Amino acid sequence: MYFLPKMLSKLLTAASLLPALVMAQPKPAANALSAIKESDLKRDLYALSDDHFRGRQAGSLDELKASMWIAEQARAIGLKPLGDDGTFFQFFHLQRTRISETSRFIIGSRQLEYGRDALVITPAIASVDAPLVFVGKATPEELANVDLKGKAVAFEFSGNPTADMSFRRFMNATFQRKSAELIKAGAVAVLIVSDDRAQRVFETFGSALELGRYDLPGGPNTRVFAQAPAIWLPARALDWVKQPDQRFTNIVNVESFSYPSVNIIAKVEGTDPVLKNEYVLISTHQDHDGIRRAVAGDSIFNGADDNATGCAATLALMRAFAQKPGKRSALFVFHGAEERGLLGSRYYTAHPTVPLASIAGVLNLEMIGRNAPDSAALLGSQPPHRNSKELVEYALTANRMGPGFKLDTRWDRADHPEGWYFRSDHLPYARLNVPAICFTTLLHADYHTPKDEPDRIDLKKLAQVTRWAYLTGWAVANAPKKPAIDADFKLER
Fold it and tell me: Where does the signal peptide begin and end (predicted)?
């Protein structure tokens, strides 16, 4: 080969070195996406939403039993406990305030049975004995010539929700608004009679009010005021309140209880000697609504989508990160008592087991197995809810790389009537300027009903959302720096 021209000789020499040069280039870190299996998701979904756990109501033995089961899965997968005292658990107290059975509600000569015939919308210590006046649907015209001062005022609920607003949420908002207006006008009690639509809600969700309100000790829902009561009546009460010359009498007594709930906390340690002290936090919640008044013969609210899907996905993400850890550590938190007002996440952010400043990003999983197979939503993806553009970009890139969902951005808007952004466990973190987003496939007709069963979950979609969250978490776990907080982040409420 000595007779070749020098230039050709150099080219051949360079070509011979190409394989070595290619091998010398850094490769993207291999992930463990293949560890996420639909069969695992199905097994864990069906286990958690089985009648065995009786709906996993916060503050009950059923929630604790489900939490023990989750902790055992974490141990079997090989994760390290990061709760209190070397365990997977962080226990906390929740306080329940309810209307006592000693309370009395009487219309004319009819004594009402609490829970079946009457529900108090907000716990309030009150004693009322007043003339009862019925004002139809309480329109301005019907109220124009009625003296409400010193009266117990009854009206029939009416009205229609705006687009994208659930009827139940609209109904609750109407109850609060109209009650406040009538009390301001002088009513000493307000009685709201269900129409046919509100009656269906009374039968399905009324038992939640019967149970009372929950909060962390000293929280706003533990406070009870002496004020005019607002009382929700079933549709059959319309004939009762229409009778003339009646009095309404009530004595409302309130009682309070303390119950234990628990967060389950585990980690996979990162591989980088420095970055392993930072965390990508995978968040979800294990509780649901427990046993309530039966609907069509079923009294167990199993919460398959809400939120056994999020729990099954989080267990799958544990397996993936355990198989192939990222540079940063992966922290997994199952929050207790989410359904009672984000109590577990509120408690954890007030008593974190790692410094909040060390959390690179929170990826919250909330109801991820229903609705159209090609659609999903990312809460916290647009102002004013977006608190980290960089974290959102990781999630959007992961969606393009993975499932390619069409993202519904309406539910993340500040003017969306459901206020969905404010109703899951990413919120307490975001309020403390920890980068946080929420993966969800949004509400459906079976939300908080006994029909939220595992056989209604789209398992393929559940697997796709889980992989989307994994690719997002993997990117954050291996990024050179933590996602930055947006300088102008400020929630609208």
Answer: 1-24
